[in-house]
Amino acid sequence: MKNNYYKLQFTFGIILFTISIFLFISFNSYWKYGVFDQSEIIGDNINFVTTQNTLGGVGAQMSEYLIRLFGITAYLLISLVLLTGLRIVFSVKKINIVKTTIYHIFFFLWIPLLLSICEYDIISGEIGITMANKLTPLIGTVGIILLLITTLFIFLFLGLNLTKNHVAKFQKSISNLCSSIISTTNKSIFLGVPLKIFNYKSKAQKNQKKIIQEVVIKDDNTNIKTNNKKDNSQESEIIVKVAEDENTVNKNKIGVDQNNSNKIEYKFPELDLLKEYAENKISIDQEEVEDNKKLIEDTLKDFKIDVKVQRATVGPTITLYEIIPDEGVRISKIKNLENDIALRIKAVGVRIIAPLPGKGTVGIEVPNQNPTIVSMKNVIASEKFQTANLELPIALGKTIANETFIIDLTKMPHLLIAGATGQGKSVGLNTILCSILYKKHPNDVKFILIDPKKVELTLYNRIESHFLAKLPNNDEAIITDTKSVVKTLKALCVEMDNRYDLLKKAEVRNIQEYNKKHKSKLLNSAEGHKFLPYLVLVIDEFADLIMTAGKEVEIPIARLAQLSRAIGIHLIIATQRPTTNIITGTIKANFPTRIAFRVIQGIDSKTILDTVGANQLIGRGDMLISTGSSLSRIQCAFIDTSEVEKLTDFISRQDSHSETFVLPIDKNEINELSISKNEDRDPLFKEAALLIIMHQQGSTSMIQRKLKLGYNRAGRIIDQLEDAGVLGPLQGSKGRQVLIQTEEELNQLI
């Protein structure tokens, strides 16, 4: 169906092309042979055989009729037909058929009326003569001239969409013309009108034309020369800045374990493991920049705000336009026009920074039509990252100025990441982890990875013996179930207390001083002193943990966030639900560094950053990072799953210690293991177990109803049944799995 429609459309366009060519040839031939052909085509005895028109009798008759009707304006008919054909065949979007038709109709009437004043019938056509005959008795010839001038001005303003700037230019032209006439005649009064009338300047022109006085003082201090100069630039010139690519370093380092008697050689990952994208270089579209500049200025002028776009900084995904408003303009008035500017530019994610920190300008961030991919390889290979002397360096991505954005995790000291689904949180987590993997030795840092989704961080299982830490009884280092999460957090609290005891014995204040003393062999290992690696706790889908565990998770996290900075434990939490129920006041107070990817509502942005802005991001890794005192917009570096797989596979082939870093077990957890003893169980333990086996479902509410118990006692019985192996672990909203099928199996178990 679509194919047939296209064929019909193409055929119609070709026909219009042919008609336009036919009219053009016949019109041109008319001026030479029209006088001779009139006798042959007009009257009762029409004879096409003897016509001299190039296109024969049809061409002679068509040109005779149209030129006599429209005069010279008949050529506009050729233009209308040709433009319509171009629009149909080639789909030229700049040609609006409706507007083009209206413009041609206007000139079909306006030009013949103008030519009718000259009284040339053949040029003005019958239409022009008829209109002149009707209007002359009513308004006279002078009235017709005034009518023509008025209608032309109305057409220019409405049809061509002239702005205030065009009016100012026209006023200046008239002023200059009058000034030149007066200067040549040496008169101060022209036709009785004061000269200052012709020297009228708009307010915008007065601001653009400032008198600059240059005072030149010679050495003898006798002659002082003053020159008055005028800035004749009428339009604001914009400075377009495209940041240059940073220097890259490609060095593969060899690291040696300096803190163990069994020194193991470790080769740092190579840059060739990461991908290089062809679209990683910023290109400037001068036309796009100029169009956006004009649209910004015109939009603000529509709201009576005169501005000047001073500079445009082209970044990987957005362009920052710096504007200077006129004196007396309120900044809040500009800030409230974000949606209006976005509507005019037809862009998603226009953000206004009013004012720009450290500058006397207002910033407007506009997304680029052709964004650039910021590759992880380009970020890691940058000289800034390679030479960074930081404890835990993280290369997040590129700024608007195309500079690699690097932060030190130890200075944060904890990081909160939030954003809507599919906006780049998982890629951001991979960027953070891979930055540390490229920079640090396995003995310097260990990760504790918590992944309730079970699939996001799976690839890091390969580097368990190198970079991961786990509980002693867990088979896998990456934690996925809620019960293990609670145990891990408690174990981290124990590790924190143990480390503070070591720092107290060593008489130091932080982990840096402690490890420095240890490397200098100033600490006695017999007293329990050892090298302390950094511990980085990464929690993905934090909202799911809060829903299933609640205070059991929130309390130890809050305690770690408050106290763990000095002893080298740092937290990275990610969530897609930035609500106050998930990100509580206790969490926010201890996470001064926050990253916000695109969110849907402004209230979510305020929850994360304490300000709006994240709802105006464009997605796909576009993010805002708040470091407490400043807010920066970053394009997150992109790293896909295949790159992470190559990186972890490369590390897994390196030599490592046979033992994985093990977290200490909480004493309370050890006591809980003994709950399986009969003397520690609830008196109704067996009755509850039989009840669960009979119904093949286990829940706290069922035990409450059947045994008429309170919630707390029923919850303790459920925990005892789980530890005894009767019930499986908690699975979120799903019911617990019953592991025992018969009463005989229960008797054997207990």
Descriptive keywords:
Rossmann fold; alpha/beta; Threonyl-tRNA Synthetase, Chain A, domain 2; single chain; 5-stranded mixed beta sheet; 27 helices; 22 strands; 4 domains; 9-stranded mixed beta sheet; 750 residues; elongated
Major sheet attributes? 9 strands, mixed
CATH topology of the largest domain, anyone? Rossmann fold
What portion of residues belong to β-strands?
5-15%
Judging from the principal axes of the Cα atoms, what is the shape? Answer: elongated
The CATH class of the largest domain is identified as Alpha Beta
Number of strands: 22
Query: Average pLDDT value?
Result: 80
Description:
This protein is an alpha/beta fold and 750 residues long. It has four domains: 2-164, no CATH class; 286-367, Threonyl-tRNA Synthetase, Chain A, domain 2 (2-Layer Sandwich), CATH 3.30.980; 416-645, Rossmann fold (3-Layer(aba) Sandwich); 667-749, Winged helix-like DNA-binding domain superfamily/Winged helix DNA-binding domain (Arc Repressor Mutant, subunit A, Orthogonal Bundle). Helix content is 46%, strand content 14%. It is built from 27 helices and 22 strands. A nine-stranded mixed β-sheet has the order 13-12-21-20-19-14-18-17-15. Strands 5-8-9-11-10 form a five-stranded mixed β-sheet. β6 and β7 (265-267) form a beta hairpin. α1 (2-41) crosses α2, α2 (56-70) crosses α5 (121-159) and α4 (97-116) packs across α5. The protein is elongated, with a radius of gyration of 40 Å. The model is unreliable at 186-235 and 670-677 (pLDDT under 50).
